[in-house]
């Protein structure tokens, strides 16, 4: 079993990981030693804070070990990806890959002889999606019938929220004036529409009025802040997305839980003060990456019934 996208998992599999994630947080000692003697390989082509650390610490807390491989200091950039993955899987019990392209995640999964987790690619971020539904369940007490508004660029995180929503009965509204072409998944959106769990909205205020949760993610990639060649693109995005910033004015008195997968670009997609707003569950969401990650490790290792 692999975790490439939540589209591939059943509702029962998602529910199992969700319940174990909550149990992990409530009673972590119960799971001590469950991965003793096991090794998790972490192959990262992209930078990371939460995915890397939750995986390394989570594996350690379960009694196993994680070994981190930076793409730039290995032979992955020189050799055939499938060959290198096959070799890496001979040394490992599990593998987590954080790659730029979804096609490469699929290639890695096909070549691996051990279970593979997608730690983020340009199309999906399933580990984030699982931590997100754990956080909503923890904060609100349910998932079925929850209405979540996602605002910003329609991207890998949005896709994983939609895919998770289909499994747990959570409705997602996309307030997304722009879709990342690499992330577009019309089949996913159509399936979610078919079961009444996805729609699109241009008016953020109207969406918030009927929402339990509002969720945003960065809409200016980090390179736009440092590369002068992207100055024009940065300004275009600022002009397009600024009206959709989560701030005191746009959120008003709406009784919504506020989420962000982090890192946040304060003053862009979200005003800095909102991260610590009483309605914010952003840092609970970040903490839950650890508990959820541990549950996924056990699931793929065959430790959960």
Q: What class do helices, strands and sheet pairing give?
A: alpha/beta
Low-confidence stretches: none
**CATH-defined superfamily of the largest domain:** Aspartate/ornithine carbamoyltransferase
Mean pLDDT: 95
**What does the radius of gyration come to?**
19 Å
Percentage of residues assigned to helices: 40-55%
Please give the domain count: 2
Straight-line distance between termini: 13 Å
What does this structure look like?
With 305 residues, the protein is an alpha/beta fold. The protein has two domains: 6-124 and 288-300, Aspartate/ornithine carbamoyltransferase (Rossmann fold); 128-285, 3-Layer(aba) Sandwich (Rossmann fold), CATH 3.40.50.1370. Helices cover 43% and strands 16% of the residues. The protein has twelve helices and nine strands. The strands form two sheets. The protein has a five-stranded parallel sheet. It has a four-stranded parallel sheet with strand order 2-1-3-4, sandwiched between helices. Helix 7 links the parallel strand 6 (171-179) and strand 7 (198-200). Helix 3 packs across helix 4. The longest helix has 19 residues, at 282-300. The protein starts with 10 loop residues before the first helix and ends in a 5-residue tail after the last helix. The mean pLDDT is 95.
